[in-house]
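User: Reviewer 2 asked us to show a designed sequence for the structure in our supplementary figure. I'm pasting the structure tokens here. Could you produce the per-position amino acids so we can include them in the response letter?
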């Protein structure tokens, strides 16, 4: 069982030690369940004679010595280091287990050709699963890796290859980096190379993927986005890329989108598209590429001292990715996507009972893990965008440049960044920081005005509200846009204001003609929920498609969705508005998000969803034919049809489409499209095991295996459900991604009645799940993904009874509490929809 490091222990150890270097030798061959690791750590001690400890999660500890003296046995995942000298040499040898959960050194067998691939994931504190280390972010040091592997394997690490002797690859020492961004990947990886010019000369670029995915490696596009990012960040940050070469490894069953290992970033290989995808999905890939690239400066070059400030890394990377997408790539509408999708995730997370400040209290590593959520990423980025509006872009970038140079290869806290920003902007950020970073929840902003006899504003104000349990009223720098027009709603007037307190008068709008639409937070500068005055709401519900530009349309659609989630707008009405107006939406990312929201509304918030599913299926089917053949919209409508038709009178058409008995011009049913349709048929008994096996025979790939797992879990018969339940709760040796795939198909809205008996079984299984998976990643994933989504009073009652227990783990309680809140929201919204 992992011994979680506390903040107090980390502070004490960081004050005591200075690590001067790691030399790590790994021997891997892909066979068996373990690999050999030998680590030599050199470090200094500020108080000779003091005691400390090193982190090690070895399956078998073969030897450990400090300054030539043998050490004691493992205690949990620690070895005690007694009587330290001023200068110390620690040597630890052991056998470490390959991971199937995604933590440590993961071993995957490619089902296509049987080839073995290894890759590491050392975040947040999993480096100790590969080698002995001081596994905390503020004990940075240079790393030198040596990896012995089969001679025909490709091996990648943080440093450049220095030499190779037979099967042993020696890597050059790195610059000082934290343990959580160290990396090793090994196997018969396919490789593509390029270079990009940097301020200090050319930077070597490498792309790696499984040999079986080589035909799908879109090297030109990935390199183009990467080069654009380098050019943008070099100009913006005025600091040369710090880690020599830059490799990007696309790994199988990688549970995150990407991981910012210094000079050796790892991504999930679902980003290598085996089938046709929409441009929104390509934007999401580009955003991830640029997110991880920006981390090379903010996170790897300069690293926060402890996890309570690490939100800065993720918030900054999310903000920087969207900024660079909008200004340096073809994805110029990136901020529209940010408003429509990224911020919506933040608003949803921030309204859960587990909400926490962006700069949260993180007493230990386990608490840090659960706080890497959409408050950290999406709200943090939203608040940074507000900060840029508050201090000015030039001041923001000048502060970053000073920050990188002043703290290169070192550790910082939020205070250091704020000091740099205060210096360049001249603003006192203490009040801003207190309001935005140390408080929780989201404000609501709405316009209030009166109109004189000539139709002009006689008064205008912005009213700010906050939930009673989180009553903070914040300072918002925002824009108010006025839109009017007979055919197209055009921006006719705009003002920027600072909103403070409960009510802020806006004298600049007095005397201005009342428009058709008043849009608070135009340009999406601040982080807040937006509501409309009655006249503007009438315009929005009738004329959103008439807005001439994509961002205000996205903001209006987002506000309507937020009103639906809050029970202010019936879900059926929202669905009707979308289906009536979606054809006119020209920005595909908004179009895609609207279809996704309708799916959620029908599954979760609609009292009698049958009519809605039928309407969506009919709309999708009639839209497939006229859509551009092979285009994004046709692909999106196919997904909507596959997800909605199975329980309607269009089910036969869906099956005929799958069987190739019905054809649509330009619609090619590629591998992923066939799986998507199969997932729409299986829950209704319209396809089964034989069809799943046919698809697997056609598509022998690890991604296909995950699709098949979901399809098997979706089967409606009781025997299939019981077998799936046994796999998920009975200790099966599945990989982490396979667990998630099965769990993702278990609950289905069309099977609510037959699945009711599993509601209490879920809560009965929680204790064993947590213990069996050692409170790790799989334990968290199963707790969250297996929560009953067939929300009803029995679900709430069972959740409340479990939450009333005294001895449940804090992290697991939080996950259940969040899911319970989502279920309660669904019940409230169904009641509202039924009125």
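Assistant: Here is a per-position design you can include in the supplement:
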């Amino acid at each position: 069982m992992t011994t979680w490091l506390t903040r107090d222990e980390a502070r004490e150890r960081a004050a005591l030690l200075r690590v001067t270097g790691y030399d790590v030798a790994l021997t891997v061959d892909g066979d068996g369940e373990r690999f050999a690791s030998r680590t030599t750590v050199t470090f200094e001690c500020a108080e000779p004679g003091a005691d400390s400890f090193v982190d090690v999660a070895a399956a078998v500890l073969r030897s450990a010595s400090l300054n030539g003296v043998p050490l004691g046995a493992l205690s949990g995942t620690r070895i005690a280091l007694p009587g330290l000298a001023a200068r110390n040499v620690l040597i630890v040898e052991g056998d470490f287990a390959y991971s199937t959960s995604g933590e440590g050194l993961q071993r995957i067998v490619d089902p296509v050709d049987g080839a073995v691939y290894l890759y590491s994931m050392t975040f947040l504190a999993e480096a100790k699963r590969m080698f002995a280390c001081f596994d905390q972010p503020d004990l940075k040091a240079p790393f030198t890796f040596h990896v012995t592997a089969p001679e025909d394997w490709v091996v990648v690490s943080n440093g450049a290859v220095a030499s190779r002797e037979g099967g042993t690859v020696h890597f050059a020492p790195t610059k000082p980096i934290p343990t959580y961004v160290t990396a090793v990947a090994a196997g018969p990886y396919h490789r593509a190379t390029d270079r990009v010019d940097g301020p200090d000369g050319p930077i070597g670029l490498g792309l790696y993927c499984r040999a079986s995915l080589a035909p799908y490696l879109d090297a030109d596009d990935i390199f183009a986005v990467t080069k654009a990012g380098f050019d943008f960040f070099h100009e913006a940050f005025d600091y040369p890329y710090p880690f020599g070469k830059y490799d990007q490894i696309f790994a199988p069953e990688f549970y995150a989108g990407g991981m910012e290992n210094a000079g050796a970033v790892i991504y999930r290989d679902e980003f290598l598209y085996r089938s046709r995808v929409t441009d929104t999905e390509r934007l999401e890939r580009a955003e991830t590429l640029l997110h991880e690239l920006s981390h090379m400066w903010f996170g790897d070059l300069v690293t926060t001292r402890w996890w309570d400030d690490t939100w800065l890394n993720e918030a900054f990377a999310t903000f920087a990715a969207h900024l660079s997408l909008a200004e340096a790539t073809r994805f110029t509408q990136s901020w529209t996507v940010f408003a429509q999708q990224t911020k919506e995730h933040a608003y949803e997370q921030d309204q859960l009972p587990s909400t926490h400040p962006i700069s949260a209290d993180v007493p230990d590593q386990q608490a840090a893990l659960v706080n890497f959520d959409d408050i950290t990423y999406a709200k943090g980025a939203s608040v940074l965008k507000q900060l840029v509006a508050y201090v000015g872009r030039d001041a923001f970038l000048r502060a970053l440049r000073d920050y990188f140079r002043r703290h290169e290869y070192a550790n910082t806290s939020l205070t250091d960044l704020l000091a740099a920003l205060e210096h360049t902007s001249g603003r006192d950020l203490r009040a801003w920081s207190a309001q935005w970073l140390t408080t929780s929840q989201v404000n609501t902003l709405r316009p209030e005005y009166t109109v004189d006899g000539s139709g002009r504003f006689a008064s205008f104000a912005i009213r700010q509200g906050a939930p009673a349990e989180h009553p903070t009223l914040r300072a918002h720098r925002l824009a108010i846009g006025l839109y009017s027009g007979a055919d197209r709603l055009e921006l006719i007037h705009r003002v920027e204001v600072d909103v403070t307190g409960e009510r802020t008068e806006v004298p600049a709008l007095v005397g201005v003609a009342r428009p058709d639409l008043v849009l608070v937070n135009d340009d999406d500068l601040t982080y807040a929920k937006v509501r409309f005055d009655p006249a503007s709401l009438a315009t929005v519900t009738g004329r959103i498609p008439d807005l001439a530009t994509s961002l205000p349309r996205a903001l209006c659609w987002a506000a309507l969705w937020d009103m639906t989630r809050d029970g202010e707008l019936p879900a059926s009405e929202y669905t009707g508005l979308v289906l009536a107006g979606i054809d006119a939406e020209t920005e595909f990312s908004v179009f895609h998000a609207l279809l996704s929201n309708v799916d959620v509304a029908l599954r979760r918030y609609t009292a009698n969803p049958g009519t809605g599913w039928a309407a969506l299926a009919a709309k999708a089917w009639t839209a497939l034919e006229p859509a551009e053949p092979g285009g994004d919209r046709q692909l999106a409508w196919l997904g909507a049809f596959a997800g909605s038709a199975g329980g309607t009178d269009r089910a036969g058409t869906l099956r005929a489409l799958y069987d190739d008995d019905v054809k649509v011009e330009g619609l090619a049913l590629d591998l992923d499209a066939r799986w998507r349709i199969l997932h729409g048929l299986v829950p209704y008994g319209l396809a089964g095991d034989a069809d799943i096996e046919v698809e697997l025979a056609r598509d022998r790939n690890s991604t296909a295996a995950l699709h098949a797992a979901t399809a098997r879990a979706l089967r409606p018969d009781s025997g299939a459900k019981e077998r799936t339940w046994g796999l998920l709760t009975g200790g099966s040796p599945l990989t982490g991604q396979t667990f998630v795939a099965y769990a993702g198909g278990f609950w289905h809205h069309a099977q609510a009645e037959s699945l009711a008996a599993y509601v209490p079984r879920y809560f009965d299984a929680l204790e064993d799940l947590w213990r069996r998976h050692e409170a790790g990643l799989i334990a968290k994933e199963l707790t969250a993904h297996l929560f009953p989504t067939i929300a009803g009073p029995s679900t709430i009652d069972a959740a409340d009874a479990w939450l009333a227990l005294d001895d449940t783990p804090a992290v697991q309680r939080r996950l259940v509490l969040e899911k319970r809140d989502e279920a309660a929201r669904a019940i409230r919204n169904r009641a509202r929809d039924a009125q």
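For the response letter, you might also mention the following. Residues 101 and 777 are 7 Å apart (CA to CA). The chain is about 40% helix and 20% strand.
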